[in-house]
Design brief:
globular, alpha/beta, 191 residues
């Protein structure tokens, strides 16, 4: 309740996505106090992209198609939905790479991958460096961000900057922007 009082008392609020703007309004913040300003991205890091293949080589997945998730390993990111969807996909030459720091969802994701019989078809990299991030996104054949709730979704924008096709859930804040631009396929969470 204290948070709602603070929001209402603010002279102005910046929302990074239409989703966050909607949340502010549902908390009772008048529309005239909300200003939409999407997160920025440093374009310089995408000027000289690394050659393709470096990430694949490092993780021993040459010759495989890569479906990439890049983000915090947190249940809110839809990791279970992604693993279950990947298990149903009929692409035996594909691997699912799940890259990012542990944030409460790694253990359950590893357990689910084993239960689904995915074995070596899922690679958990843990935290990767900023340089490895770009290399991973360059090598990915598809980037997926199936979040249950995501205020913005910067990694989807980074994937696009690396030339990688993107699928995101409609619960990702940047989804309407990318869909309008024809830059991503947006799916309903859980579909």
């Amino acid at each position: 309740m204290a948070g709602r009082k603070l929001l209402k008392a603010a002279s102005a609020l910046v929302a990074v996505s239409p989703l966050e703007e909607k949340q502010y309004r549902s908390a009772g913040v008048p529309a005239e106090k909300i200003f939409l300003s999407a997160n920025g991205i440093d374009l310089e890091q995408f000027q000289d992209l690394p050659p393709r293949g470096e990430f694949r080589k490092k993780f021993g997945i040459e010759g495989k198609r890569i479906v990439m998730f890049l983000g915090r390993m947190n249940p809110i990111k839809g990791l279970d939905f992604l693993l279950e969807s990947f298990a149903r996909a009929a692409y035996p030459d594909a691997v699912l790479v799940m890259a990012g720091p542990e944030d409460g969802g790694l253990g359950s994701s590893i357990t689910l991958a084993k239960r689904l019989g995915l074995g070596k078809r899922v690679v958990f990299t843990g935290m990767i460096s900023p340089e490895e991030r770009i290399s991973a996104l360059r090598d990915a054949d598809l980037f997926v961000l199936p979040s249950r709730h995501e205020i913005f979704g910067l990694s989807a924008l980074e994937a696009i900057m690396c030339g990688t096709p993107v699928i995101i859930s409609g619960e990702v804040g940047i989804a309407p922007i990318l869909e309008e631009a024809g830059a991503a396929v947006v799916v309903e969470y859980g579909d």
